[in-house]
Amino acid sequence: MDKGVDEAGWDVEPGDEIEPVVQAVGRLLRVCREAAGVSVSELAATLGYGEDMVRKIERGARIPRPEYLDRADQLLKAQGHLRAFMEGMRKARYPKKIRELADLLLSEITMPPKGFADS
């Protein structure tokens, strides 16, 4: 099996709050592909992924990698609609607890120390 086939995306954790977004991105990918008149097999071959992987991404079962969205956007002439989700899908690959920890750390970094007053 081609290494690229397994790397097109990450698994979605069932019940993760990001799941509906991943499913919406998958539906958008399918709509763009169908509007461009491209079959699953053609998209898979052009992008270098297996048909099963393309189907999983379109069903929202796999989180597409940002590079996948970028290449699909170009190929399907999606006018940036797929690229718009690149950063969100990059963050979505991490489990919910890791995303929450990162948000907490960022908020701690940006908060002034206790007792700090603007002068």
Automatic annotation (TrEMBL):
<dbReference type="Pfam" id="PF13560">
    <property type="entry name" value="HTH_31"/>
</dbReference>
<dbReference type="InterPro" id="IPR001387">
    <property type="entry name" value="Cro/C1-type_HTH"/>
</dbReference>
<protein>
    <submittedName>
        <fullName>Helix-turn-helix transcriptional regulator</fullName>
    </submittedName>
</protein>
<feature type="domain" description="HTH cro/C1-type">
    <location>
        <begin position="29"/>
        <end position="82"/>
    </location>
</feature>
<dbReference type="InterPro" id="IPR010982">
    <property type="entry name" value="Lambda_DNA-bd_dom_sf"/>
</dbReference>
